[in-house]
Amino acid sequence: MKYRFDPEGLRLPVKLDSTSNAEYEPIPLEPRNRYANELAQSATTRSARRLAMPRRDFLVTAAGAATTLLAINRANAEAGKRAGFYELEADAGEDVQLAEATIGKKEFIFDVQGHYVPPNVAAARKRECSRFDYVSRDYMRCLGADDFVKDVFLDADTDMMVLSFVPSRRDAEPLTIEEADATRRIVDELEGTHRLFIHGRVNPNQAGDIEDMDELAEKYGVSAWKTYTQWGPDGKGFYLTDDVGLRFIEKARSLGVKNICIHKGIPFGDESYEHSLCTDIGPIAKQFPDVNFLIYHSGWVPGQAEGPYDPDRNEGIDSLVASVEKAGLGKGSNVYAELGSTWRGLMRDMDSAAHGIGKLVKHLGEDNVLWGTDSIWYGSPQDQIQGFRAFQIAKDVREEHGYPEITDEIRAKIFGLNALKPYGIGIEEAKMRARNDLVDQRRENYREARDPHHLTFGPKTRREFLFFKT
Predict the structure, then answer these.
(1) What is the DSSP-derived secondary structure letter of residue 263?
(2) Residue predicted with more confidence, 287 or 468
């Protein structure tokens, strides 16, 4: 069989669905999203026939992705959402080379928010799992290191990634630092360089976490700290400007690991909603100018539309922008906005996409927006990459709100160059890490027989979401 996954070509390469990253309840598709999928299914069938290609063969090409993005354009435009769009030639859906020229590989991509399942759990259960068990309710238990490498480095154009963590009690971590380190070593052994970094998960309002930072830095060589200000063992969060937050930052500085990744947005519930807002980011960044504050999700709230900047809104991306500006921090500060789950959510609504990306680049600066995908929750991040390569803000919206045109230069910065600064990596070192190694060789060989599964792995319904929480 030529294709192990989806041989009939039923799945679209741009995965427009209700999947969440298990931190928020899945949001059903709106009518225009369902319409976009219907248009894409019809268009891909027509294009495949015109090119005399089997449907599956067509869908694994760049033209298959371009056809889907063009369908999303049409569905959004017909719904009156024209502030953003995917800038593609109309013929890109029937011309593989033309599509490749627009959404094909051309940048260094450093994904600063990736996730994984425990490799020891996956390996122990591998014998129980069919290779097609991805579609079952308990599929996450079947994902192993090979699946991770395939999704992130073979089916996507990702060059480097940071493995991150979810909030948890110390005795119930879904992915421990030891398991993350083991995953990193698997990839290191595979190609001999260092494509994966790891975070150290610290909830300073949980007893023992600050004390354990020494071991995380010295034994595991973490490159950054990950914290959730809205989480706590008692259900209550904290502000970085609180005493416990200050202790955490001072400890990070003393250990010489001065990247702090903070989950902001994607609220967990009413009890600590206030701590999901970015109110404390501007003041704490001003107080510690030698520390980099990487704001995961950029304050984005699932289900809330992003519009023009409103400094009094204090929700969503506006919360981050307002906090930074009120603190007197300009563009190019020590505050970075990260796009994990945010960009994927914005892809469903072209108006929100235009205002969300436009506000971040305008107010924080084109050097301070970082690429992240929250994969493998969303399967391979390739569709997010292809979408961002083609994304553009409409000219009239740019002129009205002062947003920049999204140029290839800006895309290259967001995709990877911007993250080099906080992680202390030079461009030559980055090229060494991500070129001419075994992963690169495998990727080159794999191009001749690509077999992406075009699936997402996170929960898609409320029932599945609750299942992940148990």
Answers:
(1) E
(2) 287
* CA 314 remoteness from chain centre: 23
Beta-bridge partner residues of 294? 261, 336
Distance of alpha carbon 470 from alpha carbon 466, whole angstroms: 7
The two tokens of residue 284 are 């704490």
Q: Which residues contact 151 (CB under 8 A, 6 or more apart)?
A: 375, 376, 379, 380, 381
| Cβ-based burial of 280 (10 A; exposed 0-12, middle 13-18, buried ≥19) | buried
**Which secondary-structure segment (H or E) carries 431?**
helix 427-434
Does residue 470 contact residue 29 with C-beta atoms inside 8 Å? no
Cα-based distances in Å from 230 to 108, 266, 299: 33, 10, 12
pLDDT digits (tens, 9 = 90+) for 106-138: 899 999 998 765 444 343 344 445 443 444 444
DSSP output for 383-428: HHHHHHHHEEE-HHHHHHHTPPP--HHHHHIIIIIHHHTTTT--HH
Query: What does each C-alpha distance from 75 to 40, 192, 387, 396 come to in angstroms?
Result: 10, 45, 15, 20
Q: Which residues of 300-336 are buried (b: 16+ CB within 10 A; e: fewer)?
A: bbbeeebbebeeeebbbbbbbbbbbeebebeeebbbb
Number of Cβ atoms within 10 Å of the Cβ of 182: 15
Q: Coil, strand, or helix at residue 299?
A: helix
With CA atoms as reference, report the closest residue to 434 among 184, 181, 185, 110: 110
pTM of the model: 0.92
